[in-house]
């Protein structure tokens, strides 16, 4: 490297000042003072032993030497900027941003994610947990509840889901222990206040307590209720013995296996549309998406 090259910061200040032919406008663009711009230009001129600007009354003009230097400096600075931008884009390829429903993230994905992290330590996962549909401006892919066909999206089916009633084992020891459908009338019903967002898109109508009332042929309009705003909170309340919850088989599987919840009225089951892995067709060549797709399909089957 040529040790006689002036500092990069001075060259950048020269480039901006030459573009505007104004130290005050250069200072504004660089977010420094006009005096600092003037000082950097003076240091550059001293370093080169050349005058780069004619300092006229309220006006700057480039000297012949300044004109000769302007384009090569601009080309060099643009080359550095482009190289840094490319490096930054390449570094971002190690990040995979996943859009997912909060309850699915908490109850299913996060407990299993360590396996993916062990297999792919080079990929950093960012989880964007929210109720809305992804527009894929900031998400690489989505794990979606249901799916509506779109020509520009790839959708891979992940897993089916049943919906049924669950309680804490604590509630099985009382007088009304769910041996009969009418026992349900003596228990608190836990409600999820957030209807599935995909109802708004015509993908699926969320099963409700009215559906289970019809399925069990029992009147529950006088039951006490407890209302929470997320499916995982509903399940946590059920684990605490607060009442009966409508559970999704995917979200509740670990709690059932651990014995924290038990299924009641086992033959009374409703279906949901299940879950899909969704991403834009334009993302299909993304190696991180391909690795995650391979992993999650294996985890689901």
TrEMBL record:
Gene3D superfamilies: Periplasmic binding protein-like II, Winged helix-like DNA-binding domain superfamily/Winged helix DNA-binding domain. GO terms for biological process: DNA-templated transcription. CDD domains: PBP2_GcdR_TrpI_HvrB_AmpR_like. It comes from the Bacteria. The keyword DNA-binding applies. Keywords: DNA-binding, Transcription, Transcription regulation. The keyword Transcription regulation applies. Residues 6-63 form the HTH lysR-type domain. InterPro entries: LysR-type_TF_proteobact-type (IPR058163), LysR_HTH_N (IPR000847), LysR_subst-bd (IPR005119), WH-like_DNA-bd_sf (IPR036388), WH_DNA-bd_sf (IPR036390). Belongs to the LysR transcriptional regulatory family. This is HTH lysR-type domain-containing protein.
């Amino acid at each position: 490297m040529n040790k006689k090259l002036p500092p990069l910061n001075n060259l950048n200040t020269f480039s901006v000042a030459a573009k505007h032919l104004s130290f005050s406008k250069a200072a504004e663009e660089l977010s420094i003072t006009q005096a600092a711009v003037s000082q950097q230009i003076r240091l550059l001129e001293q370093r080169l032993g050349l005058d780069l600007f004619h300092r006229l009354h309220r006006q700057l003009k480039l000297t012949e030497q300044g004109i000769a230097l302007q384009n090569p400096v601009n080309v060099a600075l643009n080359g550095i900027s482009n190289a840094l931008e490319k490096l930054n884009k390449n570094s971002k390829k190690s990040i995979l941003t996943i859009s997912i429903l909060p309850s699915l993230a908490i109850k299913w994905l996060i407990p299993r994610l360590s396996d993916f992290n062990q297999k792919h330590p080079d990929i950093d996962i960012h989880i964007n947990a929210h109720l809305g549909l992804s527009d894929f401006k900031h998400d690489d892919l989505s794990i979606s509840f249901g799916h509506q066909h779109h020509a520009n999206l790839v959708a891979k089916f992940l897993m089916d889901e049943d919906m049924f009633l669950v309680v804490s084992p604590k509630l099985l020891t009382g007088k009304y222990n769910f041996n009969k459908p009418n026992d349900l009338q003596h228990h608190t019903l836990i409600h999820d206040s957030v209807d599935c967002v995909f109802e708004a898109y015509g993908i699926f109508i969320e099963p409700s307590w009215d559906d289970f009332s019809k399925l069990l042929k029992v009147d529950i309009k006088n039951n006490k209720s407890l209302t929470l705003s997320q499916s995982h909170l509903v399940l946590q309340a059920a684990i605490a013995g607060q009442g009966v919850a409508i559970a999704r088989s995917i979200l509740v599987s670990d709690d059932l296996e651990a014995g924290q919840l038990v299924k009641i009225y086992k033959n009374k089951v409703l279906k949901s549309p299940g879950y899909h892995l969704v991403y834009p067709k334009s993302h299909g060549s993304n190696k991180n998406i391909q690795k995650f797709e391979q992993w999650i399909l294996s985890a689901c089957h």
